[in-house]
């Protein structure tokens, strides 16, 4: 009677508006799925055009080219005798929907629009799409002529329906619908749907993967069934890294797990599962069966096709596995490294340049590039022809094979220590030693001549010469002199990024990497348009605490012993004069708060949605063992003053890898004013009143 179904899901490294590349990767995934015996193939959300098209969704071109790709898919021999489920935008009755288009043998079976749109944090789907609000309702969709000519169909079903094959019933969810409190799989499962599919565009956040896995497994633990999840992977053109993790689950247990971080553009998971296991699991759940007897049925699209074979008694089926999670340090090592590789190869540049100060942040950034080099060499060793071709193009050598991460690092990574009279020999030595251990091409230079020239121009024009505070100058003078040094470093970084390879007789230019962490961005502890201004920043969404743990991970796993002295040194900007040859300036003293405190403030401000008064109320309890209410009030006021004074800096923040849910990225994740009343008079008065009563 047919009971063993073979299904496939995938993680694809799609790229926004790269219709040709996206088509090639989709067809490749279908070929792999068919070669492994799959009769159904699921792909990521909006895989035809790429998820991150943003306002390009408004353009009719995006819809046109998506249908042109769909035409190629329908015509392709690869898509015959397998149900294909692909994602694309569709305009129905002049309303744009985020859809799944499910087809078989040149016939479209169903166009299923998304019901619950993602509209928080980094997601803005309601800006471009409308949710389908007609539950269990199907309408006729009139196909474009180019599709009619292939399928011979004038109209196809459009709406909230399920597919009934010869042997089972399938129902689709799209990304956010799994996270919604009233997920469609609940009612679909009660109505007899045995296989749930979810096409996602879900991005990486540190420590998030388990939540997605738990949701998928819990979806079938209570209701029984098979759950198939596909996801995008890689950088498709912005700050996000989509982290794969394609998976297949049955009756609450994972049976197939895809990688979270990988340089493979196409990854396909295939599982063979016994439908009778679903039916017997459901049979003994009395409460489920009582609810099922009252459910409002879904429209069913009948499909004259089976996912199983008639004689399949001896076909082996997949057994449950234990999900393997990465540690946060492994996530930092792998996620930003894969994002950097995508950015490098797709921008067609020849490598990276990093101002390496010898501190934790720039050293962590260097280690991420080194990790990228490791991933490239490993992928080539494992036979990844795409990575090899990209590496050869980047280094401009058609015979090159990256085998040693240090040697590859030398070719694609330039580090630069920019000393001034305020720099210590210790940081210079640390930067040089780390560069030697990772293999980067390292430059030492001194910026004093440029600094004196710029300050000299000011002195000629005004007749006044500013001084550091240790030499009798005001804090305003001292800060201006510090900023001049920082900004000159940015100018020199771009100059060397453009011309270093030319000076070495090599083609191409370099991308400038920034290395400001999420905490100092939140506090505004950076100079606007200094070395934090770069092309991209792989650590801009990572906290100082996590970066320290990552440095320790690199010491242990990459044997980078130079990092030990970097770990033990207090963080410093080295912009003020040395005292007896030693650094007198430290970050935490300058900021008036510790990095640990900053991390707490950041999470309360963004994740807990706390303003000054609410943050104070929470912290008097959290910190009751270490601070009086008056001390807490002082700390909270100082944070909000500094945060609001410096918020304007977030409007020019370098595009950063998104890794934390308390990121202050002003682009779209953390939308706030950048001109505040920094006295916070009403809010602080509420705090003072509470302090006095306590």
TrEMBL record:
Subunit structure comment from the entry = Homohexamer.
An annotated GO cellular component of this protein is:
cytosol
Q: Which domain of life is it from?
A: Eukaryota
Taxonomic source organism: Rhagologus leucostigma
According to the entry, every stretch annotated as the CN hydrolase domain falls at 5-275
Q: Which UniProt keywords apply?
A: ATP-binding, Ligase, NAD, Nucleotide-binding
Q: Name one GO biological process term.
A: 'de novo' NAD+ biosynthetic process from L-tryptophan
User: What is the protein name given in its UniProt record?
Assistant: Glutamine-dependent NAD(+) synthetase
Q: What class of enzyme is it?
A: ligase
Q: Which PANTHER family match?
A: GLUTAMINE-DEPENDENT NAD(+) SYNTHETASE, NH 3 /GLUTAMINE-DEPENDENT NAD + SYNTHETASE
Q: What is its EC number?
A: 6.3.5.1
What would be an example GO MF term here?
ATP binding
Give me the gene this protein comes from: Nadsyn1
């Amino acid at each position: 009677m047919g009971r063993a179904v073979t299904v496939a899901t995938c993680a694809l490294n799609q790229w926004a508006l790269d219709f040709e590349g996206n088509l090639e990767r989709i067809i490749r995934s279908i070929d792999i799925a068919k070669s492994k015996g799959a009769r159904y193939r699921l792909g990521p959300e909006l895989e035809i055009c790429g998820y991150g098209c943003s306002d390009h969704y408004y353009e009719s071109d995006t819809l046109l080219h998506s249908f042109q790709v769909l035409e190629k898919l329908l015509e392709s021999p690869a898509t015959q005798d397998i149900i294909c489920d692909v994602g694309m935008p569709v305009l129905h009755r002049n309303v744009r929907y985020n859809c799944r288009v499910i087809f078989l043998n040149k016939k479209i079976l169903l166009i299923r629009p998304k019901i619950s749109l993602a509209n928080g944090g980094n997601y803005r789907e309601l800006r471009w799409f409308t949710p389908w609000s007609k539950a269990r309702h199907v309408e006729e969709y009139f196909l474009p002529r180019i599709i009619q000519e292939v399928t011979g169909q004038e109209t196809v079903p459009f709406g909230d329906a399920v597919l009934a094959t010869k042997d089972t019933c399938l129902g689709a969810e799209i990304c956010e619908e799994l996270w919604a409190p009233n997920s469609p799989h609940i009612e679909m499962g009660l109505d007899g749907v045995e296989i749930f599919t979810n096409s996602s565009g879900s991005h990486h956040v540190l420590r998030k993967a388990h939540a997605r896995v738990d949701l998928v497994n819990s979806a079938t633990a209570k209701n029984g069934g098979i759950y198939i999840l596909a996801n995008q992977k890689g950088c498709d053109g912005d700050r996000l890294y989509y982290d794969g993790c394609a998976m297949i689950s049955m009756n609450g247990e994972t049976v197939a797990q895809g990688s979270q971080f990988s340089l493979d553009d196409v990854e396909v998971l295939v599982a063979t599962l016994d439908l009778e296991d679903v039916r017997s699991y459901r049979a003994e759940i009395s409460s489920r069966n009582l609810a099922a007897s009252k459910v409002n049925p879904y429209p069913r699209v009948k499909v004259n096709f089976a996912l199983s074979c008639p004689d399949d008694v001896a076909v082996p089926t997949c057994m449950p596995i234990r999900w393997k999670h990465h540690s946060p340090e492994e996530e930092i090592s792998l996620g930003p490294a894969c994002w950097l590789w995508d950015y490098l190869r797709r921008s067609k540049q020849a490598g990276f340049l990093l101002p390496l100060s010898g501190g934790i942040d720039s050293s962590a950034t260097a280690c991420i590039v080194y990790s990228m080099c490791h991933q490239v060499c490993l992928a080539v060793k494992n036979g990844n022809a795409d990575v090899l071709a990209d590496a050869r193009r980047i280094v401009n050598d058609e015979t090159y094979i990256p085998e040693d991460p240090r040697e590859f690092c030398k070719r694609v990574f330039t580090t630069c220590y920019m000393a001034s009279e305020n720099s210590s020999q210790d940081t210079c030595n640390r930067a040089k030693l780390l560069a030697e251990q990772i293999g980067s091409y390292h430059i030492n230079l001194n910026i004093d001549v440029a600094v004196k020239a710029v300050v000299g121009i000011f002195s000629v024009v005004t007749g006044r010469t500013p001084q550091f505070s240790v030499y009798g100058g005001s804090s305003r003078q001292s800060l201006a002199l510090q900023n001049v040094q920082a900004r000159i470093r940015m100018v020199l970084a771009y100059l060397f990024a453009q011309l270093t390879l030319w000076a070495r007789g090599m083609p191409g230019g370099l991308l400038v990497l920034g290395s400001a962490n999420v905490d100092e961005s939140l506090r505004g502890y950076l100079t606007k348009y200094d070395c934090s201004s770069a092309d991209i920043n792989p650590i801009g969404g990572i906290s100082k605490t996590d970066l320290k743990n990552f440095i320790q991970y690199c010491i242990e796993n990459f044997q980078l012993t130079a990092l030990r002295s970097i770990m033990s040194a207090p963080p410093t900007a080295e912009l003020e004069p040395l005292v007896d040859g030693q650094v007198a300036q430290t970050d935490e003293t300058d900021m008036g708060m510790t990095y640990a405190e900053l991390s707490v403030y950041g999470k309360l401000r963004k994740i807990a949605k706390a303003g000054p008064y609410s943050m104070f109320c929470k912290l008097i309890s959290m910190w009751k063992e270490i601070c009086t209410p008056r001390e807490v009030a002082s700390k909270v006021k100082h944070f909000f003053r500094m945060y609001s004074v410096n918020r304007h800096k977030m409007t020019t923040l370098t595009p950063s890898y998104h890794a934390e849910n308390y990121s202050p990225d002003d682009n779209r994740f953390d939308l706030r004013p950048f001109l505040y009343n920094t006295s916070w008079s009403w809010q602080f008065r509420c705090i003072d009143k509470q302090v006095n009563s306590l």
